[in-house]
Design goal:
The chain is α/β, with parallel strands linked by helices. The chain is 26% helix and 14% strand. The protein is built from 14 helices and 18 strands. It has an eight-stranded parallel sheet with strand order 9-8-7-3-2-1-11-10. It has a five-stranded antiparallel sheet with strand order 12-13-14-18-16. A hairpin with a 5-residue loop joins β5 and β6. It is globular. The protein binds alpha-D-glucopyranose.
């Protein structure tokens, strides 16, 4: 009998489908490519995979602009490929989660096309957020209904030929749905059932805090605050209560994790009340600098507010943490050493963790992509001022000594750096000191400890800029300071993120120790 539901302490591996592995040879990753690499993932030791959107899409935002919620884009394969992937993943002991994008569709979605072809006030327009402009234009002078800005830059409104405007919190090719309309709600319950019937173990919910906008769409203060007319409106929770009922009606344990950006752990906790989502992403660590003080605050705030925490260091929307942590250090190896140490600290904590493809290879952000190669709409919409997210989306290096490093036979949709030979999975698999081996060892050890550790951690006293906590028999120490520190008393060193200095833990290093 399963005592702890699988998701509570699962390690989930995010697959950014376009960039994982390309079986068809067209330069873009696909479902068959993932299927080929399932043995790699099983050997890595993760419990589940989460696939970013693979649905039919014009790819204005890398597939987060969905034109059909019940199919697979030919770029990525077919529904039959999907079914094969689910079956094979399960045969490899891996659960499979898919991304659901409910805040907006693609402007190519038939519903939006019908809305454009229908008059103001029509049922077709009521599925989206069409409004008449105001004389004030939200202060812009252009007549938009209010002053809301798109997350990708520029106004959140686009005007259609009859003069009305539609809302898009992201790109203009991503019109926001009207979630106060029961038809939209029904449609998504049906979409959930469609994928649950195909055997998925759960959903990652894109922009989960954005679905409901404040009545009357009042102007907002510029900048992101989690309590605004746009984000985390109280009524959004009713939607997830409906979703939870659908998930619970299926055999096994099907789960939902929300992409929720908030200013506080308390706001995050609202999404994971017992009748709502199972989890929400906790981005606090990902947003924290390399600092023991900052990490301690993140851990304390999270554990205080959320019963089933999640931890994340990187994903397809942010600069890879090897690069983030390396910034400001004179030591060229610091970023990777710190990334490995942070993983060890994070995986010692209660809860589940989300890894981003390539972090097990220690991939850095690719910062020098040529402008003409960049595809993130953020880059274009900011006239090249904001580099955007392509640098963390460069296709994975699997093998060989030159691009596309075994990614596929037909190049790669974003160019890979010339110096990634030592980072390939093949090269690292042959080197026990590699980051890949380190990840495998950590995940294996975590599995061995699974079920033997309590949910609570105890802080122990430790030198400045270090953290030391105990969870049952496990002691974790991380050194974010500048010099080596003595290891605390222990019976056994289980695993370290880098070499010890005699009996001391060097800077930028973490260790798991056993006691008792
Ligand atoms: C989420 C996705 C991001 C996408 C956005 C709009 O934040 O993670 O990649 O651009 O939603 O769908």
């Amino acid at each position: 009998m399963e005592t702890t539901p699988w998701w509570r302490d699962a390690v989930v591996y995010e697959i950014y489908v376009r960039s994982f592995a390309d079986a068809s040879g067209d330069g873009t990753g696909d479902l068959a490519g993932i299927r080929d690499r399932l043995p790699y993932l099983a050997e890595l030791g993760v419990d589940a995979i989460w696939l970013t959107p693979f649905y039919p899409s014009p790819m204005a935002d890398g597939g987060y602009d969905v034109a059909d919620y019940r199919d697979v884009d030919p770029l990525f394969g077919s529904l039959a490929d999907f079914d094969d992937l689910v079956a094979d993943a399960h045969a490899h002991g891996l659960r499979l989660m898919v991304d659901i994008v409910p805040n907006h569709s693609s402007s190519a979605h038939p519903w939006f096309q019908k809305a454009l072809a229908s008059p103001r006030g029509s049922q077709e327009r009521e599925r989206y957020m069409f409004r008449d402009g105001g004389p004030e234009g939200g202060g812009s002078g252009h007549g938009e209904p209010n002053n809301w800005l798109s997350t990708f830059g520029g106004p959140a409104w686009t005007q259609v030929p009859d003069g009305q405007w539609y809302l898009h919190l992201f790109a203009p090719e991503q019109p926001d749905f009207n979630w106060r309309n029961p038809e939209v709600r029904e449609e998504f319950l049906d979409v959930l059932r469609f994928w649950l019937d195909r055997g998925v173990d759960g959903f990652r919910i894109d922009v989960a805090m954005g679905l409901i906008k404040a009545e009357g769409l009042p102007d907002t203060d510029p900048g992101f605050t989690s309590r605004s007319p746009i984000w985390s409106r109280p009524e959004v929770h009713d939607i997830y209560r409906d979703w939870r009922r659908v998930l619970d009606s299926y055999p096994g344990t099907r789960v939902a994790i929300g992409e929720v950006w908030t200013d506080s752990a308390e706001d995050l906790a609202l999404y994971v009340r017992p009748d709502e989502l199972h989890q929400s992403f906790n981005f606090a660590w990902l947003e924290a600098p390399w600092s023991a003080t900052a990490f301690r605050k993140v851990i304390d705030d999270t554990l205080k507010a959320v019963a089933s925490p999640t931890w994340v260091l990187s994903n397809h929307d942010v600069v890879r943490h090897v690069t983030r942590y390396g910034q400001g250090s004179l030591d060229p190896g610091a970023g990777l050493a710190r990334a490995r140490a942070a993983l060890l600290a994070m995986l010692a904590l209660p809860g589940s963790a989300y890894l981003y493809q390539g972090e097990e290879l220690g991939l850095p952000e690719v910062t020098d992509l040529p402008p003409e190669a960049r595809q993130d709409p953020i880059f274009a919409r900011s006239n090249g001022e904001v580099p955007g997210r392509d640098g963390c989306r460069v296709p994975l290096p699997w093998s060989g000594t030159e691009p596309p490093y075994g990614f596929g036979s037909g190049g790669s949709w974003l160019p890979q750096p010339a110096d990634w030979t030592d980072l390939t999975a093949e090269r690292q698999a042959a080197d026990p000191s590699s980051t890949l081996w380190f990840y495998r060892r950590v995940l294996q050890t975590r599995r061995e400890l699974r079920g033997t550790l309590p949910d609570a951690i105890t802080w122990l006293e430790s030198p400045e800029e270090t953290l030391l906590f105990q969870r049952g028999r496990l002691i974790c120490v991380i050194n974010c300071g500048e010099g080596a520190v003595a290891l605390p008393p222990h019976d056994q060193v289980l695993i370290t993120s880098g070499p010890l200095d005699g009996a001391a833990l060097p800077a930028d290093t973490a260790a798991w120790l056993l006691t008792g």
